[in-house]
Amino acid sequence: MTDTTPDTAPRAATFTSYAPATGEPIAEHPLSGPEEVARAVAGARSAGAAWAALPHARRRGHLLRFKRALATSLDEVARTIAAETGKPPGDAELEVVLTLEHLSWAARNAGRVLRRRRVPSGLFAAHQRSTLVHRPLGVVGVIGPWNYPLYTPMGSIGYALAAGNAVVFKPSELTPGTGGLLAALFDEAVPEHAGVLTTVTGAAATGEALARSGVDKVAFTGSPGTARKVMAVCAGSLTPFLAECGGKDAVIVAADADLDAAADAVVWGALGNAGQTCAGVERVYAVREVYDALCERVVERARAVRPGAAPDAAYGPMTLPGQAAVVERHVSAALAAGARALLGGPESVAGPYVGPVVLAGVPEDSAAMTEETFGPTVAVNPVADVDEAVARANASRYALGAAVFCGDRRTGAAIAARLRAGAVSVNSVLGFAAVPALPFGGSGDSGFGRIHGAEGLRAFTAVQSVTVRRFAPPVNLTSFTVPEATRERAVRLARGLHRRH
Length: 501
What we know:
There is one protein chain. With 501 residues, the chain is an alpha/beta fold. It has helices spanning 34-53, 56-72, 74-85, 89-113, 151-162, 176-189, 204-211, 224-236, 259-271, 288-303, 323-336, 367-370, 386-394, 409-417, 453-458, 484-500, and strands at 14-18, 25-30, 117-119, 128-136, 139-143, 166-170, 197-199, 217-221, 241-244, 249-253, 281-287, 340-343, 349-350, 353-354, 357-360, 377-383, 398-399, 401-405, 423-426, 443-444, 447-448, 461-469. It folds into 2 domains: 14-245, Aldehyde Dehydrogenase, Chain A, domain 1 (3-Layer(aba) Sandwich); 249-436, Aldehyde Dehydrogenase, Chain A, domain 2 (3-Layer(aba) Sandwich), CATH 3.40.309. The strands form 6 sheets. Strands 12-15-16-11-10-18-19 form a 7-stranded mixed beta sheet, sandwiched between helices. A 6-stranded mixed beta sheet has the order 7-6-5-8-9-21, with helices on both faces. The protein has a 3-stranded antiparallel beta sheet with strand order 3-4-22, with no helix packed on it. The radius of gyration is 26 Å and the shape is globular. The relative contact order is 0.13.
């Protein structure tokens, strides 16, 4: 007999992810609302209690198993990244490789960085043994971006896990499959601690629900405008907040720089991932003696770079719908203000693909110099000297990354020290991205806080100060029973010591 009873059970809400180049649907994903997010956080808190109680050596072993599972599934993960972002398969594979490097470093170094440390107690507390303890926060909420949907959020996720926290991850609504696959791989690799890494999927409302959910910290990557909204939500409950909000990174080219190397790096840094890189190259300041020669080399190299879906394409489409319009607006406004197009122009924007654009003589107050373009464009401006280049580079409200090209490495490092950027490469671009021991982050509209390295591990801990009394002090200054004469002698002793030293 056929059951003709209508199906009246409520269906779970879902949303669809799409291929950015074609608009074709990829997959359906759960739309996590406040209730689903709350359940995920509660589950992570429950699973996280046992995870936090593990010694560092045990967590290290589990995370290295997770790393091996990620490496074994590299092809599948890269295919998912490429499908959701549109980037070439080789770029997606490189993203996974960089992620593996960072996860390995975090797993292997958390015990050393976060171990209990003895600190000097000083003269008046010599009877105390003083130590610093780094305790896990509990549950960390991570809100990730779409441009590097694995590498960037894992800068928070991997380090938070290594520090003993559970994580609830909200990937971008453009790249939910990558986030779901990441959590599934963790559960497969470390089944005895399944649920320590959980993914919730959805758009802005899901991120807001995560910020309101009672997590112990939120690590966010995205635009400054969205960061301010999420931070305002976190402020209501005094939830700690870490923000990485992009940049308007500058490259300084000195008169004695290797121009071929500088041009090659500028083109790669500006056009890689279709320019959709928070620390990508968007501004170049070259001293006048080498300006024309540098421009020629940049244009020559950029002209050979092609976007598209073909296997030999250098980069793919704009992943974010509407981003191509931002690129066109910035380029058109710069040209209208007096800039010159050395390569490409508004006509380079063709659907989801944007051809390389090289601008020269761009007014410093134009959007192409002050706002994050996040496309395959670069502005190259002349300066009188390195001092002017530093001043212009520092004038931005962003301060994330930068690069210096200089014939003398010591001089290059000295120039780097004058830049406000949180990370600087000398004679390369984005050199810091592949060094797990280096912290990454910026200031101003680039956000605040640090991921990666020892600072990134400590960012996901609470510091606890502990003193243990070893013996009774000769003079107990923390008692109402201390004689007044004794207190006065102690004050005279301290005054005498600090007057001399």
